[in-house]
Amino acid sequence: MGRSLDHRAEARCDVNITGFTSNGIQAVQKIRPKGIEMVNRLFFMFLLSMASVIGASAQQATNDKPAVRAEVLVVGVYHMANPGRDVFNMQADDVLAPKRQAEITELIEVLKKFQPTKIAIEADPYGRRRQEYADYLAGKHTLSRNENDQIGYRLAKELGHKAIYPVDADGEFPWPRVVNYAKASGRSKELEAIMAEVGGMVKAQGEYLASHTVLETLLYMNADAKVAEDVGFYYREAHLGEPGDWAGPDLVSDWFRRNMRIYSNVVKLVDSPNERVLVIYGAGHLGWLRNNFASDPSFRLRKLSEFVK
Question: Are residues 60 and 209 in the same domain?
Fold first, then answer.
């Protein structure tokens, strides 16, 4: 009886181990054919398990590695030629004066650190700007006071770019409708208070420029707090409306739509994840364009302050 049980146990045993030799090597007395098959099977399963662990680890490492994304640097600027097209317009001194020209050079050296592959400007995509830049490269165009010339053209030429990229989009800005609504609803003082604050902000920017360099002024205008303040004025204007006459909300919606179209035009310039696009635009667009690119997972948004060290 005991022998029979021992026999069955022996038949099921994979390896019959007698112990260890004096030098520490495990001594195996018997390995039966079924035992060899089972050992091979267990070893194969062990290899599969290890391969699975290694593969999962490699996949996790790949997933943890940040994806390469196109970069966009939006720089909000003041209108250097004083075109007077906004509700409030900052008064700037002559950018062609030797002092300001030296400051433009300083700004361009900072922007070079971003290493832009393309430069987008606030201009009509179907207008004269592309040809004008080509003329500038050929020595047939003299730079004007406009920021597209002073920053965009100069930087693009120094970087060896063959083209400039106008990305503006036209849009409605129904300001008279907001004014009329405020009058009709007895809320003119509310609107006047908002606009007085806007006027004060624009005036402060002009005063800041008078005692600071161009670069310092742009850093001031591109600071997060300033950008948030500017966007906040639009949202406060959106309070001026009601069902049936959404004067303020419609104005903000139209402004948002224009900036979304500008964003779309910039997106179309990106040919690879290695693209780095510099966008030069009036500061009133800055918060809206920043938000568009920051919300798009395809892009890494950069800021001017990152390159001033």
Answer: no
| 167: nearest Cα among 132, 117, 125 | 125
Q: Is pTM beyond 0.70 here?
A: yes
Cβ atoms 217, 211 nearer than 8 A: no
CB 69 within 8 A of CB 273: yes
Query: Pairing between strand 26-31 and 15-20?
Result: antiparallel
Residue ranges making up the domain that contains 23: 2-64
pLDDT in tens, 9-26: 344 444 444 443 444 444
For the chain, what percent of residues have pLDDT higher than 70?
A: 76
Give pLDDT, residue 85.
59
- In order, the DSSP letters of 270-296 are --STT-EEEEEEEGGGHHHHHHHHHH-
Q: Which two tokens stand for residue 26?
A: 């495990």
User: Terminal CA-to-CA distance of the chain, rounded, Å?
Assistant: 90
Residues 110 and 242 in one domain: yes
Evaluated on CA atoms 22, 25, 26, 32, the torsion sign reads negative
Residue 146: half-sphere exposure toward Cβ, Cα within 13 Å: 17
The pLDDT assigned to 48 comes to 64
- Specify if 191 maps to a domain: no
Q: Whole-angstrom Cα distance, residue 57 to residue 288?
A: 40
* Bridge partners (DSSP) listed for residue 277: 72, 118
